[in-house]
Amino acid sequence: MMTTFTRGAMQPLGEGVEIGRRGVMAWVLNAGWVPLLAAALLTLEGVLAIDTTVPSLARRQAIFGVFGFLCAAAMMLPGSRTLTRVAWPLYLISLVLLIFVLIPGTPEWLVRPKNGARRWISLGLFEFQPSEIAKIAVVLALSQWLRARSLRRFGAFLMPFLLAAPPMLLILIEPDLGTALMFAPAVIAMAIAAGARLLHISLLVGVVALGAPLSYPFLKPHQRDRVDALMAQIRGDDSFVGDIGFQGDRAMTLAGSGGLFGVGRERAQALVHFNRLPEEHNDMIFAVICCRWGFFGGVVTWGLGLLYAFGALLVASGAREPFSRFAATGIAGTFIAQLVLNTGMTLGVMPVTGVTLPFISYGGSSLVALWIGTGLLCNFAMRRARGVERLGAVA
After folding, report:
1. Regarding beta strands 121-122 and 2-5, do their DSSP bridges make them parallel or antiparallel, or are they unpaired?
2. Contact (Cβ atoms closer than 8 angstroms) between residue 358 and residue 338
3. Helix %, strand %, coil % for the chain, to 5?
4. Is the Cβ–Cβ distance between 315 and 377 less than 8 Å?
5. Where are the domains of the chain?
6. What pLDDT score does 299 carry?
7. CA 313/CA 306 separation, integer angstroms
8. Least confident of 95-104, 215-224, 256-265
């Protein structure tokens, strides 16, 4: 049997799969390698940063990184038809899991509350956080919904936000305000890619900006305290430093102690230890980076983050069909929002919300989910490899 292919520069030479020069170049030179490279470097930086404070967790993070890479490789295999078919089932599964962690009476060996929050399902060797998969599920489901619809009418423009609302509300109940906030930038970015009117976007952003202060009375006590601590910090009031503002104050102190090029591993390890920075391997890992590698380390982190987002947007701009374009845009929107919010709270310009630094903060669920998103970006990019399109087979 002879298999023929088109759009390549080489003619078929015999039986089996023949790939022309264009096909080879399309697979090798595609935008998917940009976020893949950035993800690998950010993961490596995360392992080194975690090793500064908790070496045993750094080894676990490296294992999670390898597993995440394997998951990314698996995500490169399915075609867009398969992804569109599983988008809504995955969305429903994520809702079921988010409801499951909130069910009262669930055995603690399966769902163990931490600091009053119910976010994790124990799987023995590691704990799984459904909210991380929910972020991917919402992006895929909305991409499937948006691909055949117009958002020019205001009612249609609001629908993606209504579809994202159920997982957001469930995550807020856990409670996990930071993760819940990450859905909005993804939906806004996807709405823009789908052709939403600038007037509608501006109106929504304005309503949210004006309504945000009105939500203050409905926040939980510790959330209101964090907002109060930030406002006091901006005013130069240190009355919260010994209490709810301690974490933010220590993070800023350590970030500033690194100077231009950092103090090195050993001294950074001592500074982090004696300053008693909470969540130094997780939420506040950016402070450790700035302490160990200085301002230069912070710039490199942001540079790699922007490289990842730029690569995701390159994938979106070159996508051959709407589903891939919307999904790549949503992944980019979530990533950049998470990067901005985490570094902002570390540097004292945003309230502490528990948002992790993507690819760098310790956590298996977060790291694997980010690598799954990276695998999807590579999948979308490689679908542009027209040189391997099969037209038919002749006996």
Report:
1. unpaired
2. yes
3. 65, 5, 30
4. yes
5. 2-394
6. 97
7. 10
8. 215-224
